[in-house]
Amino acid sequence: MPVYQIGVARLYLVTVDAESQKDAENFASCFVGYRDESNQGEREEFKCNITQIEIVDNETFPAG
User: Which of 2, 18, 31, 38 is least enclosed, having the fewest CB within 10 Å?
Assistant: First the structure.
């Protein structure tokens, strides 16, 4: 059976409760995968909470 390498690019719209936009950007970049990857301790430490993750674009393409 043939083997293929496929690239996947996803764009998310993430809603974050945070003290500043920069804090929200940093938190989202660290803890967003296909879901919120943060735990309660990290939310308390960084004083941020992801309240919504919406996928707005999902593209695949041949890689390699």
Answer: 2
Taking CA atoms, 2 is separated from 5, 8, in Å, by: 10, 19
Which two structure tokens, joined as six digits, stand for 45? Answer: 């430490």
Phi, psi dihedrals of residue 29, rounded to the nearest 5°: -65, -25
CA distances from 23 to 8, 11, 39, 42, 55 (A): 27, 19, 16, 13, 21
Show the tokens assigned to 8: 């996947």
- What are the tokens at 48? 């941020």
Instruction: Give the chain's mean pLDDT.
Output: 96
CB atoms within 10 A of CB 24: 19
Q: What is the DSSP string of the chain?
A: -----EEEEEEEEEEEE-SSHHHHHHHHHHHBSSSB---HHHHHHHT-EEEEEEEEEEEEEE--
